[in-house]
Amino acid sequence: MSMISNDLLKIAFVGDYLPRKCGIATFTHDLRIGVARETCAECIVVTLDDIEGGYAYDNEVQFQVADQELDEYQSAADFLNFSNVDVISLQHEFGIFGGPCGSHILALLQDVRMPVVTTLHTVLSEPNEAQRAVMMQLIRLSTRLVVMTERSRQTLLDTYSVDSDQIDVIAHGIPEAPETDQSVLKEQFGVEDKPVALTFGLLSPGKGIEHVLKAIPEIVAKFPDFIYIILGATHPSLLREQGERYRISLERMAKELGVSKHVSFYNRFVELEELTEFIGAADLYITPYLNVEQAVSGTLAYAFGCGQAVISTPYWHAEELLADGRGVLVPFADPSAIAREVIGLLSDDDRRLAMRDKAYDLGRDMTWEHVSQLYIDSFNRARDQRTSSLKPLAVRTLDEQPLALPQMQLDHLQHLSDSTGVVQHAIYSIPDHAHGYCTDDNARALILTVLLEEQGKDSTEVRSLASRYAAFLNNAFNRETGRFRNFLSFDRQWLETDGSDDSQGRALWALGTCIGRSSNANLVAWAREVFHQALPACEKTSSPRTWALAIIGIHEYLRRYSGDRVAAAMSHQLAERLADMYDATATDAWPWFEKIATYNNAKLSQSMITHGRWFDNQRVADIGMKSLRWLCEVQLSPQGRFRPIGSNGFSPEGGVAAVFDQQAIEAHAMVSASIEAFAATKDKFWSEQAHLAFDWFLGRNDLGQPIYDPSTGGCFDGLMENQVNANQGAESTLAFLLSLAEMRGLHTTLRVVANPTH
């Protein structure tokens, strides 16, 4: 084997890596080994970890990234820049990176100073808005793109308008297939003289195994000794979420179909040598996958390259690989078609053997030796395209990157939370049990847990907290009146029969957030039930802040149920009430909803922007934007710092705004509203306003003192004229934690938005 002549000295492979049980991990490992054999370059690995502490990697893994930690992607970029890496080989699949649609990887790509060759393991022809945004940035930041099928190349051209010169089509690599004696292998597995079909790979519902099981009764009517082997461990992420539920359901299905003696499960992740023996013992290989847009299947590539006769559903990779008689395609989820083709191939040895020969011949162009040479060619082209402009150690100024954010710490929130819920107040950092609990704070806390789940922070502790806060709201809801009680004493006695209007709106906001953002099916089902019962009561409320909170909650709900006309009608009604208030009060000098700006002010503007944006109501959106911009001016100190309207007097029309006491809830409201304004306009002004308001917590305020405790995540109860209120109650702590979670989301969004307007 001759090494390719090139001057690449160091290549970094970024992706999942063995011993993680994942198809991408196997691919990254095999590609790295293949390239290392073909070059003199040092081949290192930066790997993504989906479990705490990562895996027991070999020495080639030189940097590990916790997949949900955005900061670690930026640290990985620094590592690569200072390691004199010549080119990066990135393995991309939406699900292996943190952030919405895997957007965290953009943080690494935006900071590295060397060319990037990205292998796209999935290319969606109909991406949603978020997937498209991430994909367009990924394409922009990649020097070259590698796809494994012609269909994927065409999708890049048609759907994403990629320049054809940027794309390399390189088949999925396969190991060299050793010579095997099928009769010996059949005897080894105890299936001599029996027809055998095989499916292998990590087990998950999308693999469609159930449709093969349903085909077996028809097959065994013709071939009574038929055996179907399902080889592979349950996918680790599925195992963590659902245990062995899917495998157990398949076993029960086989029993119910009366085919138990014809089905064999091997629940393990097999090494290459053992896998080769399984393939050699089989007469047929079946891939009954259910996703038509599956761009590549490593298991299909390997079985095909070993010269197996393949029956497959027509997902993209199979459709291309099995063309011209190299395999058989059957419709998706069609057991009868599977049975027909299995019987047909087992009944026709000449046809099956001819199919195997065709597959084996084409497979010689798919060996890792050949594929690695093509990748090295792509690496060299990428390097040649980017040699002139990039300086690996170039200094980045603060203006070129988002400002750092504190770490998310939940210690104080957990300290305030007991089996009932979160306690309202604290004396310094000690929970003040005398004042009990309230729906307002437990609603805020539940929203925080959902945001953390959405950002990949769905730990056992967070799930436990979410359950407690949801239980509190469930108990607070009076199903006879359709409203929430608010205050609960420490001895669990409700102190009122009906809570404030604001607590109704805040609870609805929490329920809507559960429904629109959580992937916890049980939480969503509960929240949906209570949401529908609580929604009608909003019509009878009189507080504009209740209307605003309800509108925001409704639009969280509409993320998942966009066609719900009842919820949409309520949002229209409440938004019109706010618009009418604004029209009756606002002047050029006072563009506000009331004669006095009091508390939680920015939520009024945010709700109007939200409603106007999603229902294309320009009048309502304009009110939201105009009032929020005015509020930004009112809440700006002469030193250019965020100065929320003080609670000791508020801000009456024609009067002077109170400077103190400044409350954390106002900073959070401005953070949220500014982020919503940025989402609507992509105007950089609003992302800067969000940072300005958030920095109030960090000490960029009138007293120049931090309002939060970085060691616990607690937050002081406000800024008084000469000192900080040292108590760390639930409202202020949650205002800080919610602001931090939303700012983390904004940083992710800023990675996806290429060029915000100024």
From TrEMBL:
UniProt xrefs under InterPro entries: 6-hairpin_glycosidase_sf, Glyco_trans_1, Glyco_trans_4-like_N
GO molecular function: glycosyltransferase activity
A biological-process GO annotation: carbohydrate metabolic process
Residue span(s) of domain Glycosyl transferase family: 187-360
TM regions (residue ranges): none
Segments forming domain Glycosyltransferase subfamily 4-like N-terminal: 99-175
Source organism of the structure: Rhodopirellula baltica (strain DSM 10527 / NCIMB 13988 / SH1)
Name of the protein in its database record: Uncharacterized protein
Cross-referenced Gene3D superfamilies: Glycogen Phosphorylase B
